[in-house]
Description:
Helices cover 14% and strands 54% of the residues. By secondary structure, it is mainly β. The protein has a single domain, classed as Beta Barrel (Porin). The chain has a 14-stranded antiparallel beta barrel. The longest helix is centred in the first third of the chain and has 37 residues.
Amino acid sequence: MKARALTAERCGLSRGLLATTVTLAALAALSLGADTACGEGLSDIPGAFVDVGIGAGAMGRGGAVVASVEGASSLFWNPAGLGQAESSREFMVAYGDQMGLVPYSAGAGLQRLGNYTLGVGLLYSGDDVLSETSLLVGASREFNVLPWAPDRAAGVGATLRTRWASYGNNESAGEQVTGSALGLGLDIGALIPLTDSTTLGVTGRDVVSVLNWDSSAAGSYGENVPAALGIGVAMRPHDRILLEVDLDKSLHRDTNGIVRAGAELALFGMACLRGGYVTTLSEDEHDEYSIGAGATFPAGSTVMTLDVAYLFGHLDNTLRFSLGVAL
């Protein structure tokens, strides 16, 4: 009986490892192929549905969260992080005025169902000149099958984005150009524990992307949102310290890769301080810095988290807030 049980356990381990390996291989293949498969219809300077990242906690670390993001905000960063939430139900809202020009509002929630975690999010940005809305639906699955980290779970996940946009709704004295857009995007990701204190994160953003525009001036045409591959390593040298370095590799010829580094220090079990650094991989290198703070407040059976971050950008600075509720 013991031998049979051991054999079954090993078979389960092999199936879990195979599933994780296949998922990572599919992620790499889709991401590497996205530039050739989807890039032909892109404009010279991709600008629609720009991914600025959501949540003040993440921005406080310069967006270096691919390997450490958890909870509802994972829908926007790495869907595999949905299952890493400490609670079985969670909600968050966020607001930021990007570079003092474009307002971004977002909300998201998750629900854990056994080994699966489901998430739904909504993102709205812009104004009557150009407004963009994205509905996100995601899911993640955890596997406790890694022989080198038996006490930590690996996770895989995916987020489907439904996008629509509208422009030209503002008042204008001249001839007004109006239009709309509708499309879909798919993100996939994985979180793999390397050691008890180190995690590898991989995500492919918009590995599949379709976006159709309808303009009163140009008629109907198709365009895709540029795909990107994110790879990060998060380390916890101490229970109160989190360090991460990410590479956001653009898979389109007109967008640059980005390196992000972030740190977080927990204080008194209810607060934290954050800092981040961002640089572009281009000849005209741009450096950005961010700072942030967070506080956690127990309220009966719920836990509320308030985060604030400030990004010192090369175009203009950005202030962002987010509020989370865990049940």
